[in-house]
Design brief:
This protein is α/β, with parallel strands linked by helices and 456 residues long. It contains 15 helices and 17 strands. It has two domains: 221 residues, Aldehyde Dehydrogenase, Chain A, domain 1 (3-Layer(aba) Sandwich), CATH 3.40.605; 190 residues, Aldehyde Dehydrogenase, Chain A, domain 2, CATH 3.40.309.10. It is globular, with a radius of gyration of 24 Å.
Amino acid sequence: MEQDSKAYIAGYIERARRAQEAFEKMSQEEVDKAVQTIGRVVYENAQFLAEIAVEETGMGNVEDKFAKNRQKAGIVWNNLRGKKSRGILETDEKTGITTVAKPVGVVAAITPCTNPIVTPMSNSMFALKCGNAIIITPHHKSVRCSTKTVEMINAALAEQGYPENLIQILDQHSRENTRNLISMADVVVATGGAGMVNAAYSSGRPALGVGAGNVQCIIDEGYDYREAVPKIIKGRSYDYGIICSAEQSVICPEGQFDEIMEEFRAGGAYVVDRPEDLEKVRGALFEDGKTNRHSVGQSCQKVAELAGMQIPEDTKVIIAVAEGTGLSDALGGEKMAPVIAAYRYRDLDDAIRIAAENLEKDGKGHSVSFHTDSEKHIAKVAESLCVSRFVINQCSANSAGGSYFNGLNPTNTLGCGSWGHNSISENLNYTHLMNVSRVARFMPDNYVPTDEELWG
């Protein structure tokens, strides 16, 4: 069995290397055209791909997946176009160093069922941008829709004369095949659950993985919460809560807490604060301390049904007024449904404490959302919390992964640094799939400091 699996994967690796050898000879313009084609296929087929993703996975909703397919395709391509990724990149006149871009080789990408269209898309765009070939192994719950995406992309690439097998996707799915793929490829990109990411880091190959999400959202005291609340509702409800960068807890100044909850209600939230109802919500979201799979990516109405509760049909999010941080209350951890935990804080130090304790439960290293007018408070929060990105006055769900309106790299793979046991603390980008050679010139006129200048 093991030998059969190794032979099966070796065939994929061999085909990928042949394709890459031919692709590596193509110009920057030809490479960029291939990358644009990948994004364009998803953009132009966004509705169809959203429909088959929801149909197969049973997670999220077509409307948000359609928007995600279009937005991610556009913003990733916009970020990549015009950037040099082949041959000589630049020469630094001061240091005398010339940098030369080279492919990393065959990329193995493990993709999740929560983002079964845009993650294969963006990983393929990043890989091809640098002249690499890529082999995708999708989550077993999203095999058909991820495979269809790759097939449509490959058909468009073939029409333009690109080498066959630049992008491949496994047609036989098992842990054994995934394990052999990630141990035989040159670089591994892993997007998904902790077990899979840990396997990638244990593969013996360079790996780029991500950590769990549990975005803490703080509303600063005195900030106009009417500006913040609609963004938070949008983020928590987006694709029924399966986005790792979506808001998970809202931490509010205690003097404005009741007003903020009323604003949430006016925006379509259902607030749960009675102990017996909170326990029902916990039971709907978690089983034996783990995520209840029946709640993942489901609507508020489905979550309420699992909880044995009645809520209005037009409810967009459920707000659970938590009884403790994630260290004592499961509601402070990651929730894969449109449910957000709510907290009161006394001062900013208390808000930071609440966020930090929730991040210790889940999501350390990922992201924090902060709604504020104070640069001083931004600095304090940024210096205090161990996450890789702070999203200011934005909907985190569709901006932590990059946006037209911020400077973060557009991606679907968000690194969480050593806090999340990851090798990168930034958004995965094409540069992570590029080897760089450096030409160092002899510079005899460089100044050499004296001993006195060094040590005096």
